[in-house]
Amino acid sequence: MASKAAARGRRRRLVPFHARASSIPKCPTGIQGFDEVTLGGLPRDRATLVSGPAGSGKTLLAAEFLVRGARDYGEPGLFLSFEESHRDFLSNGAAVGLPLRRLIEARRLAVDCIALESAPSEAGGEFNLDGLFIRLEQAIRSIGARRVVLDSLDGLFVGMPSPSIVRTELRRLFRWLGRRRLTTIVTAEGSRGNLTRHGIEEFLSDCVIAVDHRVREQISTRRLRVVKYRGSAHGTNEYPFMISDGGLSVLPITSLGLEHSAPRSRVSTGIPGLDRMLSGRGFYRASTVLVTGSAGSGKTSIAATFAAAACRRRERALVLALEESPAQIERNMRSIGLDLSPHLRSGRLRIVSSRPQSQGLEHHLVELHRLVREFRPSVVVIDPVSDLVGAGTYDDARAMLTRLIDYLKQRGTTTMFTSLTSGPTPTEASEVGISSLVDTWMRLVTTEPADAELSVRLGIVKSRGMSHARRPAPLRMDRGGLRVLAGEVGR
After folding, report:
1. pLDDT at 376 over 90
2. What's the rounded mean pLDDT across residues 23-52?
């Protein structure tokens, strides 16, 4: 009995952070990754402030909150704008794939735009939002709205000289919305290092989300942070997010973590000699493999052979090539007797080429997530992963790969990274610093004797959970394929 109680205690301690219960009701946004960061969504029937500079994605986040609520959760929404015209709002939403017109026609979404000159104003020393409340009441009742967006508070309180009046009326507004059980997003721009222009909104809101859009070394990135969330735990880091034709995607590094399973089944490397070095059976399924070596040592050839072996098992393989086109890879592999064309024609092999510098790291990660969801490969290859450093900093690339490794492990996908090394490196290092994150690390070492041709030796630095060869073995590449000249390794 004591051992069972101890086991239950261990299981309780291992409950992932993002699965813990919240003390307040949550309203799911449906935005990919965002609900994981906020542990379920925004505070239901309360006000959330989304703050950020122009062009940071505030309006899009708020609009997608309404669209997904109306489409996926049966909660009609009202969008009230003090800055954009009705036509501009609809066209901007359509540009990122939001079906605003269709939802308006179905009476699941209402859009009302108030020009600044007709907004609530200060007259005779008095200012209040009574007129706005009447207009809101009519729009909410017209569709039975459960979600409301006010974009933005800067337009609503434009020209107001008195912070005390702003605070009083803003508190009235939030209470008015709360009494009607409306989950609300209000947007605002920052000023002089503050989250908002008046420095008041963030104190009255129950949840505060800060977004920004920064450019570093000519590469733009967007970041999101939950500044505060009354009554609920939440992710506290900055999280990259991306705006694409599918809407907004947040990439939380802490939302995945180490809850993935550890299958015991094996998959062949496609190279018999290498399988022998891995106790005769290849890699663990759903593990992560890193192949490092200098230029010309055979990294891409090993990766392509591994992908082709998956296709021969009637599984799907996805290759993200960061230096070569699909046609170039197919042609070059013929030089070692590897014909990829049957696998490409069958649809089991997909090669996607992309220059890392063409987009930021977040774009590549979101695109990989999309490809994996749609193609459902059992094997993913990224060749070479070291090129991703060119699309960001060393730390950014490592953080991206950490997220990617966790994501693929949770899906049960076996992953192989290749990485270019520049000259002799310590066994503990790799170009992108992920050697500690992977399960199996193989190094290709090229030697150049004075009186002989170049030769390559393959060594297994580590392979978690299995016996493996400790001595490097010669790697031969010719028209007969790849051969590793190694003997059997006992389990």
Report:
1. yes
2. 91
Distances (CA, A) of 12 to 7, 100, 129: 9, 43, 49
Residue for token pair 């990617």 = 404
User: How far is residue 152's CA from residue 146's CA, in Å, rounded to a whole number?
Assistant: 19
Q: Which residues, other chains included, contact 444 with Cβ-Cβ below 8 Å and sequence gap of 6+?
A: 291, 292, 293, 294, 297, 298, 299, 302, 456, 457, 458, 475
Q: Any idea which residue has 């899906």 for tokens?
A: 411
Largest CA distance in the chain: 97
Helices 130-143 and 163-179 cross at an angle (nearest 10°) of 30
pLDDT band at 436 (very low <50, low <70, confident <90, very high): confident
CA-based nearest residue to 126, from 162, 96, 156:
162
H or E stretch at 345: helix 341-346
What is the C-alpha end-to-end distance of the chain, expressed in Å?
Answer: 36
Beta strand residue intervals within 194-259, DSSP E: 207-216, 219-229, 238-244, 247-250
At residue 35, φ and ψ (nearest 5 deg) are -65, -25
Q: Which of 121-135, 168-182, 229-243, 439-453 has the highest mean pLDDT?
A: 168-182
- State the Cα torsion 386-388-394-400 to the nearest 10°: -110
* Amino acid residing at 33: G
The strand pair at 47-51 and 183-188 is best described as: parallel
Q: Which two tokens stand for residue 135?
A: 């207009």
Given a contact cutoff of 8 angstroms between Cβ atoms, the answer to whether 319 and 307 are in contact is: yes
Mean pLDDT over 408-430 rounds to 74
* Residue 85 pLDDT: 86
CA distance 32 to 34: 6
Sign of CA dihedral 29, 31, 36, 38: negative
CA distance linking residue 92 with residue 151, whole number of Å: 14
Is residue 7 over pLDDT 50? no
Please indicate whether residue 403 or residue 394 has the higher confidence score (pLDDT): 403
Query: What is the C-alpha to C-alpha distance for residues 97 and 73, in angstroms, rounded to an integer?
Result: 18
Average pLDDT over residues 369-394: 83
DSSP state of 447: E
User: Of 211, 274, 66, 34, which Cα lies nearest the Cα of 150?
Assistant: 66
What is the rounded distance in angstroms from the CA atom of residue 233 to the CA atom of residue 237?
12
- 429, with CB counted inside 10 A (0-12, 13-18, 19+), is exposed
- The SS3 of residue 481 is strand
Q: Residue 118 has what pLDDT?
A: 45
Q: Where do the domains of the chain lie, and which CATH numbers do they carry?
A: 22-255 (3.40.50.300), 266-484 (3.40.50.300)
What is the model's pLDDT at position 49?
93
